Amino acid sequence: MLGRTADHLYWMARYIERAENVARILDVTYSMSLLPSEADNELALWTDALRISGSESLFEEIYGDVTANHVIRFLTMDKDNPSSIYSALRSARENARSVKVAMTSETWENMNALWLEFRQYLKQDLTRTGLSEFCEWVRSRSHLFRGVCFGTMLRDEAFSFVRLGTFVERADNTARLLGAKYLAFDESTKADAAIDYYEWSAVLRSVSAFQAYQKIYSNAIDPLKVSELLVLRDDMPRSLHACYDEIMPIIEQVSGTRQNEARRLSGELHAKLHFSRMVDILKDGLYEFLDDFISANAEVGSEIHRSFISANS
Amino acid sequence: MTKTAQEFFDEMQAYGQDTRKIYLAYDEWLAGVPEEDLVAKRAEAEVLFRRVGITFNVYGEEDGAERLIPFDVIPRIISSKEWTKLEKGAIQRVKALNMFLHDIYHDQEIIKAGIIPESILNNEQYRPEMYGVDLPNQVYAHIAGVDLVRTSESEFYVLEDNLRTPSGVSYMLEDRKMMMRLFPDLFQKYSVAPVEHYPQVLLENLRSVAPQGMQNPTVVVLSPGAFNSAYFEHAFLAQEMGVELVEGGDLFVRNNLVYMRTTQGPQRVDVIYRRIDDDFIDPLVFRPDSMLGVPGLLSVYRNGGVTLANAVGTGVADDKDTYIYVPEMIKFYLGENPILQNVPTYQLTKKEDLAYTLAHLSELVVKEVDGSGGYGMLVGPKASKAEIEKFRKLITEHPEAYIAQPTLSLSTCPTLVEEGIAPRHVDLRPFVLSGEKVSMVPGGLSRVAMRKGSLVVNSSQGGGTKDTWVLKQKRKAANPTAAFPGVKTTMRVQEVA
Fold it and tell me: Which pLDDT score, from 0 to 100, does residue B475 have?
């Protein structure tokens, strides 16, 4: 397959996943903001949402003040924000358009329909009213995308790069989300059990892990258990471990007999997630662990590019 | 249906009492279909076309706006007898044009014989880089589109030849798919010759012109990229042929061969179906600012390391200046009389032609010699006084840049428009494939001018498309009842004009 084709497929999937994750964060932040709490807390919630998407400084430049409406606008339809849902979906479709040939017609038609439907939302004012419905739409569209790929694509390299894109992006998002919330938790001095409960259950809900948590731990919500679930459990589909359970074999497979840095790095990262114990991670600090993970995961991304996409000339 | 005075030949002739034979069954069917049903079908088609993304890009519009080429639900029908003639004529013409291209880049016998003036070598589209280069099967225009117009029951004219990167074949295929989906019952009434195998014929054709000695050649489609207005077609053809769709940056030249960059390392490319103009194909030879091409490609090509389809330098043969000589070429190279006629053309560099043209501007069509897309064009009978005067000035200043032709009474075909079903002018672009063999699929792109009275069918000017039905030859059903004793035959024998 053409390196450029692999690149487009990989990024198409990454952008869809990104849109889904931004929608998840927004949705949870929004429902949290509806809980009775002090104004400071609400502001902190929206600031967290910005922090997770890594776009605080751009936001400050464009909007200045953090308000719910500003953050919603910035993360959904803002064309100047490269991390907005608008930008992610647009980039996803543009990547798809460039490699229509490499996917099944159903996959393409699905991507195209997504964009056409999205254009309807562009006309609406999403600040507050309609936000939940919109976020749900993004999420279900992303589910549909994965489903149509999984259900119709030949298990060839094209499929491999689509899957790679999904899981590299997902790993990044889960790590960011957990990192941001953990930092906030660490910094907070108030011991308000109720708020903690809602905050951490919101984290779980944002990665569709609330029910899983109840099922596995059937216990009060404990930040450390939440972290274990989202980092080390391989049976939790959005955990870091689960993502690398997908990423490592795919890289092995597309590498064939070739040795490369993407292969080594992903293997190393996978081993770490596979063999680490939560107590040891906590000793060195969860936040530091997640920070390292985010860098290493980004490194895997660049090595995928170096090894398969711009490898030859 | 309104009856209109018969100014033009109509493909259906439904406005008088004498519907043409091949349209009888359609006319009967149409009489039973309320117009709002047709409108609903058209709306359904638009939704489907948008979903599949059969759109062309409009430059400079926000939010990735993409436009549909209008699709008309009423087919244009061609009898098998008419098609046989058109097919023979188009193949004859393209054969002669390919022979001309080989000749003009080799011995130039046609110039020596005094049939075409030597000045043709100064034509901008003549590529001296191609002189003496031998091509597989001596084929230059592997894919040719011959634009035809009809003026009466028996008269077809060739409006122009398209030998560079003719487009539109994807619409021929998609329009058919759409018609079969919208009106399956019509395909039971008519036995329409299939066109769906075009991509396979194209692939075989491209493989047959691979560099010599290639056993299993790798074919690719080279596109300028997703922002090109014909991108849909490039992607469509690559997908239908099952080959890679590449852009300039995906290819590179090493050791006199062309490779593409793949996830598994470099892979050699043997045949490039390129949809990029000559000027942009190799920045080392042609336009140095081109980002679309492949540096060094032409050198590999000249050495026979890769085949380009179409060849570099075909533009000299489809230029409006060269057009007038095509009937002579057919006689010269094939020793045959042309089956399809040229439109009489006035060359404005000739004194008497110029004088005639200036005196009859209001009756003539004036075209730019190297123009395309219907922009720099005067349609005399439709033009205002000011436009005529503008062209009078242009022609007097630059007679070499224009030609003039009589205004042809282009045939019309019933078309669903705002005012209902009304006649609109159509042309026809069938595609001729040349490689080891020369072949055509029975069909083509019928373009229709959606505006009343307009003779300009180009999609850039708001033209639409119609599915083109070439009817199959009447089967010789010698004794159909004898084939299955005791079974009443249900075989439908198609009426053909």
Answer: 57
